[in-house]
Amino acid sequence: MSPGANREEKITEMHAIIDRDFDxxxxxxxxxxxxxxxxxxxxxxxxHPFGPRLTEALEDFLRRGKTLGFQSKNxxxxxxxxxxxxxxxxxxxxxxxxxxxxxxxxxxACDPFAGELRDGRLYGRGTIDDKGPAMASLYAMKAVRExxxxxxxxxxxxxxxxxxxxxxxxxxxxESEEIPSSSFSPDAAFPVVNAxxxxxxxxxxxxxxxxxxxxxxxxxxxxxxxxxVPSVALAxxxxxxxxxxxxxxxxxxxxxxxxxxDLVVVRSLGxxxxxxxxxxxxxxxxxxxxxxxxxxxxxxxxxxxxxxxxVLLGVEFDGRSLGxxxxxxxxxxxxxxPAYMRFEENSFSLRFxxxxxxxxxxxxxxxxxxxxxxxxxxEFSVITHKPPLFVEKESPLVxxxxxxxxxxxxxxxxxxxxxxxxxxxxxxxxxxxxxxxPGEEETAHRANEYVTLESLRKMTQxxxxxxxxxxxxxxE
Length: 476
What we know:
Layout: H1 3-33, H2 52-67, E1 71-75, E2 79-84, E3 90-96, E4 116-118, E5 121-123, H3 131-146, E6 154-160, H4 168-176, E7 182-185, E8 188-189, E9 192-196, E10 198-207, E11 216-222, E12 232-238, H5 242-249, E13 255-260, E14 263-269, H6 284-292, H7 300-313, E15 327-328, E16 332-333, E17 335-344, E18 347-356, H8 362-375, E19 379-386, E20 389-390, H9 396-409, E21 415-418, E22 430-432, E23 435-436, E24 450-452, H10 453-470
Parallel strand pairs: 3-6, 3-7, 7-22, 8-23, 9-21
Antiparallel strand pairs: 1-2, 2-6, 4-5, 5-24, 9-20, 10-18, 10-19, 11-12, 11-17, 12-14, 13-14, 15-16, 17-18
């Protein structure tokens, strides 16, 4: 029998093991999803750096992996890993167990943490971002091992707890642990993502002088996470009746006026989406700023600033009016998400999430945003800046992952650019690989997040093929 025929038989056996174990994969995933692993800094401690529920999710995942026979390690409840093999070289798979807040519960058709199965789909937080892909990776490792396919490298599934809010967990990993020679992260899209845009988060802050206008803006609250398009924005007024305010605004889709004791609230309702694709959502903050232009209120400095922001931000997504638009052939256009605003007691803060193309000049972008802030009388500062990632599409890593994708799907794969940020930025020779297939709806960070069972099974097969291909000795 030829080596090629023997490989095909082993791959067939490996996929049969995935089919056999698929119900267990789904139940293990549902079990971990039942833990609402949303970052809560208010309950973080030295023992639980991201909060007890995140620790619980990590311990649960490592326990499930250990039960399947893998070596496990927990690094101070910040990040952990499961490992197989005994080779000298290390292959990494990078996943995360923290999930986004559920947001407005009334927008969900089911409990976001119940893992509800319906019509061939599994619904809930983490199904596609990123607990589903993490569990698929674990069962892919199991299938490779049980099929008896020789793996001359060690394979390490690294799971962090802070991907959605800073990736501090990966910095902890790098302090003491071995760095894989190559790795992939199932936290973006298929076929493979070899270019990740730079991520720039900035803020503009100002203190306004006191003013005593009769109709007064008391506060604005919009957004809570910078990597999500805000779905709700509220503006509270004093010195004006509900009827008067409604008359100023007129009838507008997604805008409500409601009493709040002696105050009146304007509520703007939008649609959440991932900050990397703000055009897929509806930014409630931008809609609110447009509404505020038609309301007579003070303080006058605040009114003037909000009016200018409504013009500067408009309803666009590429930062054109801010003077920061950019694009390239590798990763596409810049995206700009005004994600967070707070105003109260004359104190104002506005924060942006900007994803810029691989070849864009980040210093020029920062300088222009500083100029905009100065024109608004604001102090400007950079919150975080993650430079872009780029791995040549001809590299052995990208070529092998494309082959793994093509072997399972039968479809030709091409390397893509991507606006999201993954753990790949912290590791050399690392790219994103899955989990969203071409043509599928992207539901990460949105209500009713889901993964189809068909896609979950198929991605597990692809990850298993990738482990086999990436574990070959040099020259094979």
